[in-house]
């Protein structure tokens, strides 16, 4: 021991003494050394330290750096010594030396109380805990993951030791690592950590720390506080925990220069990011990253972008935008409506749960963009949009109504409709957009994996080209696939399975199934995982291999097996299974496997019947037993077509394990050629007009069996030209399977050419599979409906009175009636009237019968009870047939007025606001209960406004204005705009509307300056005679003239009292005659006849 250690050791002893007496002794011991340690030995150490007995502490030996290397200290259980670095002792502070000695004592304690070395650097954990320091979870995990064991050579002996790490204090530390790979822990305080060389782990802990990774590949975690981090050279990874942040974080790390995190940290030269974000709407752009990175967005609507590594992006809560960049990535949107883009690279193909890559939408209505690379897209819950982008993608929309676009490349779609109980119909006959019927929409998909439900489904995927897999579930399903090597499993129900091209496996499952292999070789692979072929399963199934070398397995029950529809160049394998099976080697028109070669026996195309049972099964042939030969070959029998003359007999089947067959036995069934159907032809109607909507329909009818489709030929003749005078038609028609009729429709082409009537003649022609029943031509006629007459349409203008006229009825006139019906369209449009407020907006089509000169258009007029200026709208003619539109008369104007003009005596009907008398006759005008404007003409008029607030204009002539008590009151007074003094007169009616005498007295009151009509009336009733001193009240059956000279009611008024004394607001008259002509009488009495009748 060197003298420099002498002042250090008492400090170490004090730490151990205090630790032994602390309440946390046993808990901290468990943190450092686990819970399985020797309690007895630990108790002994505690008691020794409590009594300040430290004799058990191993001796300390100081070694050179050549021996210890980069370590500051070490402990060897084999020598029970603590070793310290000489250079460390010469340069380190006392606190650092105490820390290293405590760490090595921790290794010593572990060796005493545990039989197996504790995981990680238990000495460093012990040193922190005995000094009263706490370790956060990240630091504790890092120390437990560390391997602190190594070997040194002392005096030629190899000694295994546990060496000290670089661990700071709770103060401000400056720790520099070595050129090797170091673990450096700053703990609390504002620390400066330098990794130098090696692959280092730097943990800043609490405080505002500075971390410099140095060279090579480092891991840097600044911990809490505002940290400054420099990855240095190499591929460095930064850990940032911002999960407690609630405000938005913005980080733009688009190159490896210095960037500030927005949460106080500054970093640069970082290649990989591990980041936990908070609950704000964060913008995290790390496209400069090149190492595999991991970012979790937390809450909020986040934007997250990473670079070229194999990255994990998890948006978590909120509506997030995730962009992965290059590399093989995993992107998860989490909750919310997310936008996810995989970027370049293959985002998928690893299917173990811990490491699988791809784009995952999670909950919410998400948008996933695979972009470049072979990607996997999983929409999850919600109504998602999946775009595969380029290359070969796997797309699974998940639950919800999803919109899926495979993009370019060979893309596969997974659909799980297994929970559906209603029938599903999908018709995917090309790669354009199709709707699934369950809410999903997809296009540009080459392969399908589909689990269907329990309904009777119609699943047509003949546009598929990749290997596909469809399971029909329950129900009687129709399933068709395209050219890939496909798996079709009908499952329950009576299913129809069509495989298309490729090497396929078709399984009918339960039920009576119809199975067709289509083109391609459906067979030849016999391992269970990959074997192909047609499998009937349970039920009475029908299997047809169609083209290619096929394997057919009927399964249980009574099945029908047909290896081909032709058989040339094919070798099919047929195994009926249990039940009564039928093997079809011919139908009524054709014997299969006959290659037509007259020089060879056809041994390269035939069917193998593997399990023919003479008791239960039947082989179907065409013709009779004499048409065939049997030849035993070993344990099998070959079946040949008996060819005539020198032509070799044609091999069509090998029947395994049968050597005693007879062609005349009942297990051979022979079918004969069917009676061909007879075809008849008729047309209805026999003629149509060229421009009409009715077409000539030629109906073809067949007799007999209608099971299969049938094509019938015919010729097309006549004076009409196919494709010119009518829409082009072919020269054959096809009866659908199960249908006894087929039709050809002649749709005439409309034109304006005046021509002769033209004919279309169809004649049945010879063909395959039918006879001709109608031998004569069948003629239909297209009648000419064009004319040389030129007709022109015009429409009139009209004025309607709102409230009086319910409709505007306009007349359309034909200047030259046509022998053909004329049709045209019309539409309304506003000028200053408001559609559907002032009138009802309308469009329509009208037909004017042949030789007719007019038609009418009726537009409803709407009443709004408002007194307003005239309003107008138009009615425009368009698209005439058999006529033209007058360029000067094709638009009719409708004027809507509130004023009824009349040259007769009129009383306004309800809902009409105004009345104007025209002409010079002596006529009268009477208003309604509304607020009316009534205007007289040039004659002598009687004008009565009636109830309401009316405006009355007499015009020329000596006019009489009639007022009824109770109708022009203080609350609803009328106005005469042009009362001519000494010419016009006022005639009064009782409240009941009967004639009465003029007022018994009439005077002019003093001018007034009041501001309200109520005050004016009160003043007049108080003093009606302005020429007499004192107040002269307005008596019964009296009238007064008064002028207001100032204010808002300035003007001239008549106040007339009825036979009741005093003012009665609901009966006495107040008439505004502002605008009078002539000279007002002087104050005082006025002759009654000057104003009144």
Which structural category do the helix and sheet elements fall into? mainly beta
CATH topology of the largest domain: Alkaline Protease, subunit P, domain 1
Low-pLDDT segments, ≥5 res? 350-354, 525-529
Q: How far apart are the first and last residues' alpha carbons, in Å?
A: 144 Å
Structurally, how many domains make up the residues? 6
Q: Judging from the principal axes of the Cα atoms, what is the shape?
A: flat
Helix content: under 10%
Query: How many strand elements?
Result: 88
- The name of the CATH architecture of the largest domain is 2 Solenoid
Biggest beta sheet summary: 24 strands, mixed
Rounded to an integer, what's the Rg over CA atoms?
Answer: 53 Å
Content of β-strand? 25-35%
With helices defined by DSSP (H or I, 4 residues minimum), what is the helix count? 9
The CATH class of the largest domain: Mainly Beta
Task: Estimate the mean pLDDT confidence.
Answer: 87
Give your account of this protein's structure.
The structure is a single chain. The chain is mainly beta and 1093 residues long. It has six domains: 167 residues, Collagenase (Catalytic Domain) (3-Layer(aba) Sandwich); 175 residues; 258 residues, Alkaline Protease, subunit P, domain 1 (2 Solenoid); 106 residues, Immunoglobulin-like (Sandwich); 106 residues, CalX-beta domain (Immunoglobulin-like, Sandwich), CATH 2.60.40; 133 residues, no CATH class. Helices cover 8% and strands 33% of the residues. The chain is built from nine helices and 88 strands. The strands form eleven sheets. The chain has a 24-stranded mixed sheet, with no helix packed on it. The protein has a ten-stranded mixed sheet with strand order 15-19-21-23-25-27-29-31-35-34, with no helix packed on it. Strands 33-37-39-41-43-45-47-49-51-55 form a ten-stranded parallel sheet, with no helix packed on it. A hairpin with a 2-residue loop joins strand 4 and strand 5. Helix 1 packs across helix 3, helix 2 packs antiparallel against helix 7 and helix 6 crosses helix 7. The N and C termini lie far apart (144 Å).
